[in-house]
Amino acid sequence: VQLVESGGGLVQPGGSLTLSCAASGFTFSRYAMSWYRQGPGKAREWVATIAGSGGTTVYSDSVKGRFTVSRDIGKNTVFLQANLLKPEDTSVYYCNRSPDSLPWGQGTQVTVSA
What we know:
Helices cover 0% and strands 50% of the residues. It is built from no helices and ten strands. A six-stranded mixed β-sheet has the order 2-10-9-4-5-6, with no helix packed on it. Strand 4 and strand 5 form a beta hairpin. The termini are far apart.
């Protein structure tokens, strides 16, 4: 059972990135999937969630209107399209499932800086 995040990088303010989370070892469609992030010196915070079917999404106020979560059930992958990035979005981004969350993966670093 594993979650592997990728797609992070260095981007200028106002730029975009697409993060991916590849899941393996469990029935992907049975679980909601969420993105979280942890900025420097900060606690990990929830960012967005997508239902198992992909039909319902919810977002934190800090990213609503800028980020979009989606999933490809056939590829066991969840995505986070991050647009209009701000310096305060700089964090390590993680994914996890619910219920029955898994140990955290290595995450993917997003740095927003001019």
